[in-house]
Amino acid sequence: MKKRNCIIGQSGGPTIAINASLAGIIHKAKYSEEYQNVYGMINGIKGLLEERYMNLLEEFNTGEKINALKQTPAMYLGSCRFKLPTHEENTDTYVKLFEILTKLEITDFYYIGGNDSMDTVMKLDSYAKSIGSTIKFIGIPKTIDNDLMGTDHTPGFGSAAKYVASSILEVIHDSLIYQLQSVTIIEIMGRNAGWLTAAAALARNEYNEAPDLIYLPEVVFDINNFLDDIREVFKRKRCVVIAVSEGIKDKNGHFLDDNSKYLKKDAFGHVLHSGTGKMLETIVFKEFQCKVRSIELNVLQRCAMHIGSKTDLNESFVIGQKAVETAIAGKTGQVMGFKRISNNPYSVDYISTDVQDVANLEQKIPTEWINEAGNNITQELYDYLFPLIQGEVHINYRNGIPAYYSCKHLNK
């Protein structure tokens, strides 16, 4: 007799692969014959507090539907940016949440998200243990920033990296057509970790060496060195293409756009950077008086399933399945992850790590993977990135555009 009931939530920013992890959980739960009910929170933990959830086994009752979900970007269940207080700060919130979980007879709780989502898993697991609850709390990583601890890389990063590299290659083609001296500055997301910006190097091929310069937040950014770097590139070519992280900082630890009039913060107090590329554009134009253009990729790489990485999508699906196996094995307070075995041939193991060693921590690029001048990446970092973008996702089209699984329930 089936005795388990689980509930799944998604939180934070969207990715190409987060629904693949959701699909992996549903698939494993459905065919394991362990689960009577599989619920989905609508809009994460905030939605659960409002008792908004759905029966996922009823919706995804065929393998075809589960596969369609796997190839749908963003978040089928919706998201939230809700900072859960500790149970010492607000016991009432936890009492209410656990009353809902008890009513649904939940045995396993899966939360798919990034750093702040793992903080939620940690707090819920801590409270559960304090009251003797047997509910298993499992985190499944997700972030295009690739900055979570406890895993070699995060689901969603490989596809975003593929988008970055492909877009930059196309920008390079655009920049080469005129006999003009020019500088193109591409600003890429990454608050404190430069993984996505580093992926710009994957645009290099047998006929193209650009981006010519790459600037990451893990090392100090100096304006004078930046201008000297451009001068050196101009000595050998007329078009300079630069990839820069939104989170670059000066020697005093200040973000370049700290004084921007557009500065704002999210619900967790994280600065939402905007304007780094524009500031550099102004500085470069003033110095060189040439054609200068800045491009901000912003959120475009988060949901671009049409250029998704097959490796990323497949791993994200499997890690969802492994999360179910981890809960069934009786573990709780765990975050799933990858352990890299080899770059070539590429292979990984699926692991889990105590959430206490993951939540609220950031995995940054090792400084030895950045060149001494601080304006490029090393071969070791390239070799780490390269396998993650391999393979293409073949999606269905209808009326000339991708045919994704309907998310009309989120419009209510």
Automatic annotation (TrEMBL):
Keyword Cytoplasm: yes
Enzyme class: transferase
Keyword Transferase: yes
Cellular component per GO, a single term: cytoplasm
Entries under Pfam families matching the protein: PFK
EC number: 2.7.1.90
Record-level GO BP terms: fructose 6-phosphate metabolic process
Residue numbers marked as site, Important for catalytic activity: 142
Molecular function in Gene Ontology: 6-phosphofructokinase activity; diphosphate-fructose-6-phosphate 1-phosphotransferase activity; metal ion binding
Keywords, alphabetical: Cytoplasm, Glycolysis, Kinase, Magnesium, Metal-binding, Transferase
Cofactor(s) the record lists: Mg(2+)
Catalyzed reaction equations: beta-D-fructose 6-phosphate + diphosphate = beta-D-fructose 1,6-bisphosphate + phosphate + H(+)
Active site per the UniProt annotation: 145 (proton acceptor)
Functional summary from the UniProt entry: Catalyzes the phosphorylation of D-fructose 6-phosphate, the first committing step of glycolysis. Uses inorganic phosphate (PPi) as phosphoryl donor instead of ATP like common ATP-dependent phosphofructokinases (ATP-PFKs), which renders the reaction reversible, and can thus function both in glycolysis and gluconeogenesis. Consistently, PPi-PFK can replace the enzymes of both the forward (ATP-PFK) and reverse (fructose-bisphosphatase (FBPase)) reactions.
Family: Belongs to the phosphofructokinase type A (PFKA) family. PPi-dependent PFK group II subfamily. Clade 'B2' sub-subfamily.
HAMAP family referenced in this protein's UniProt entry, alphabetically: Phosphofructokinase_II_B2
Protein name: Pyrophosphate--fructose 6-phosphate 1-phosphotransferase
Organism the protein comes from: Thomasclavelia cocleata
Gene assigned in the entry: pfp_1
